[in-house]
């Protein structure tokens, strides 16, 4: 009896130690992966910006806002797929469900890359991607993979409008990224908000609020991932309530 109790206590201690070591390693590894993906996205954005040669369909924030209803409608096409692979219908897709989804859709992403992107987009750390997080992940795969990859082919085949919308979102980021360095700073956002009517500048309260909404980690710079989450919130594509007022 005592031996059994001792074994049980030893197992409990070992499990507790394992959990602590795992937590320490996760705290060290995940931020490093996040920084690596941030840098990778910055380089990709800079590459796209260089190839764009300054051409843009957007001249002001108002021209972007006018696209919100169209973007919202096109992004909702993804919801059916999201709900199909949310096998336990809990409103989120876990890592294994995500892998099944991407394999079924023939996205050209390896398991290790999926793991990294899953944790990168799981902003609340609840080990599941909600619909807005799922959209961000798909957009990042589209952005980071080569145009000849099966990921792009899948979007062209199943969601041609979604592919066009991802391109629009990337173009919006480029419009805000006045330095073309793959990240946004406060002065970039202020300049963009005032670009349409330089004589009628937006109140500092508005520009401060918009930047604060994007700067999730409060480091004074906004990555493409942070921008994506804020943009989705402004457009309203992470909610199903009809007639919702726009956040912007």
From TrEMBL:
The keyword Calcium applies. This is Calmodulin and related proteins (EF-Hand superfamily). Keywords: Calcium. The lineage of its organism: Eukaryota, Viridiplantae, Streptophyta, Embryophyta, Tracheophyta. It comes from Handroanthus impetiginosus. It holds the Pfam family EF-hand_7. Residues 73-108, 109-144, 164-199, 202-237 form the EF-hand domain. InterPro entries: CML21-like, EF-hand-dom_pair, EF_Hand_1_Ca_BS, EF_hand_dom. SMART domains: EFh.
């Amino acid at each position: 009896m005592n031996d059994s109790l001792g074994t049980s206590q030893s197992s409990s201690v070992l499990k507790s130690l394992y959990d602590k070591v795992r937590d320490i390693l996760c705290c060290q590894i995940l931020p490093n992966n996040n920084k690596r993906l941030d840098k990778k996205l910055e380089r990709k954005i800079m590459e796209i910006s260089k190839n764009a040669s300054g051409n843009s369909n957007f001249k002001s924030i108002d021209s972007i806002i006018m696209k919100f209803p169209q973007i919202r409608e096109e992004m909702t096409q993804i919801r059916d797929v999201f709900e199909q692979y949310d096998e336990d219908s809990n409103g989120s897709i876990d890592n294994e469900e995500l892998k099944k989804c991407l394999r079924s859709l023939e996205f050209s992403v390896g398991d290790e890359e999926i793991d990294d992107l899953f944790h990168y987009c799981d902003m609340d750390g609840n080990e599941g991607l909600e619909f807005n997080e799922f959209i961000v992940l798909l957009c990042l795969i589209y952005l980071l993979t080569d145009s000849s990859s099966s990921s792009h082919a899948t979007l062209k085949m199943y969601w041609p409008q979604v592919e066009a919308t991802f391109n629009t979102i990337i173009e919006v980021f480029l419009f805000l990224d006045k330095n073309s360095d793959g990240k946004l700073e406060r002065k970039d956002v202020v300049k963009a908000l005032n670009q349409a009517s330089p004589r009628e500048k937006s109140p500092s309260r508005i520009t401060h609020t918009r930047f604060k909404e994007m700067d999730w980690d409060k480091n004074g710079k906004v990555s493409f991932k942070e921008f994506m989450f804020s943009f989705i919130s402004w457009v309203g594509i992470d909610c199903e309530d009809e007639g919702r007022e726009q956040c912007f």
